[in-house]
Amino acid sequence: LLYTLGLLLVHVCFTRTTSLLQTLCEVQCECKEGSKFMNCSGTITGAQIPSNFPSELEHLDLSNNNFSIIPYRAFPSLWKLQVLLISNSHIKQVEDGAFTSLEKLQKLDLHGNYIKVLGNGFSFGLISLKELTLSHNRLQALYYRSLQHLESLQKVNFSNNEISCVETGAFRSLTHLMQLHLPRNNISELKNGIFSMLKRLEILNLEGNRIGHIDSEVFTTLSSLTMLNLVHNVIKHIKFKTFLNIKTHGTQIFMVHNQWYCDCDLQRVFGKIRSVRRLTLDDYENLTCKEPHVLSSLSLKSVDTQLCIAETVTVLVITFTVSITVVAAIVMAERNRKKRTGKHWSEETEVSY
Ligand SMILES: *[C@@H]1O[C@H](CO)[C@@H](O)[C@H](O)[C@H]1NC(C)=O
Ligand SMILES: *[C@@H]1O[C@H](CO)[C@@H](O)[C@H](O)[C@H]1NC(C)=O
Ligand SMILES: *[C@@H]1O[C@H](CO)[C@@H](O)[C@H](O)[C@H]1NC(C)=O
Ligand SMILES: *[C@@H]1O[C@H](CO)[C@@H](O)[C@H](O)[C@H]1NC(C)=O
Ligand SMILES: *[C@@H]1O[C@H](CO)[C@@H](O)[C@H](O)[C@H]1NC(C)=O
């Protein structure tokens, strides 16, 4: 009896999974190679992520749906899943531990949603993740805890969010990261320590933020950096030391479309940066001044030689004045001496009278 019951159970379970799989593959998703690849892009009718995906699944496309939330353990038992795409799916919230058990996942794409916050448990279980895309969301801050389990991460794309706050050490766990894309966000300053531990980082893209202040040690730890993009920010002035601290074999730096205050000092800083062999200022020719008003929208290169003229003139004037004074002093001293000797002599003659 027990044996029959067992058989019956096995039979029931088996038919249940196959029939669910059949529904998913026949009705909602396009399946390939059995059910290793499933494409459910724009085809899920409900507001919930299906919970009956087969455990042999490796690639899953769930984009262009309407889920609003990714709940805790949304994908139980998908031990083999490598690629998960859930872009443009109206997601507002990702619950902590949503991706727990996706230990083989290498690529996660969540672009084009409405995610505001990455919770402390966002990265829980994502120990193999190499590529994370969170562009075109509503993120406002990045915290260490939300990214702490992403130890294998190589590329992260946060473009087009509203990030204004990056916690010091937010990227501390990302020791394998090679590309950090943060363009079109709301970052206003780069503080010492925010990029510490990113020893393998090659590409740092900060285009289109509101960066006006850069701490001079902030790039010091980036020993593999090959590309630094600071285009379209509000930088007025830079320090030579900040860039001298980039100690790599070669780094390309892009800095056009900032609010450069063109003065002799800026011209000298750029001159010095350009003389460092390992640094390449690719768009130097295209840098334009924002201030002072008389130089507005002129290219830095074209006013380059004039910027220090005022200073040179001042130096010349000072030198000239000093020289005159010195000469005058010498002449006076000489005259005094002569006068004194003359007097002396005349005194002597007076005596001889
Ligand atoms: C899934 O199908 C859509 C068209 O229905 C296609 O645009 C998309 O590229 C497919 N996804 C993958 C991962 O092949
Ligand atoms: C998505 O679902 C929400 C309810 O969960 C609904 O209000 C909204 O109209 C849906 N949007 C689309 C584009 O289907
Ligand atoms: C980042 O993601 C956006 C899509 O939202 C894409 O257009 C862009 O090319 C990506 N950037 C990189 C470097 O992959
Ligand atoms: C960017 O930050 C400024 C001030 O910190 C704020 O006024 C502005 O609304 C922010 N922009 C976005 C898109 O969040
Ligand atoms: C400089 O500007 C010119 C004309 O706008 C453009 O063709 C060129 O690609 C720019 N060079 C760089 C390095 O941005």
Automatic annotation (TrEMBL):
GO cellular component entries: extracellular matrix; extracellular space
Q: Which UniProt keywords apply?
A: Leucine-rich repeat, Membrane, Repeat, Signal, Transmembrane, Transmembrane helix
SUPFAM superfamilies reported in the protein's UniProt record:
L domain-like
By its UniProt entry, which InterPro entries does this protein fall under? Dev_Immune_Receptor, Leu-rich_rpt, Leu-rich_rpt_typical-subtyp, LRR_dom_sf
A Pfam match is LRR_8
Coiled-coil segments on the chain, per record: none
Regions crossing the membrane: 313-333
Annotated signal sequence range: 1-17
- Protein name in UniProt: LRRCT domain-containing protein
Q: Organism source for this protein?
A: Latimeria chalumnae
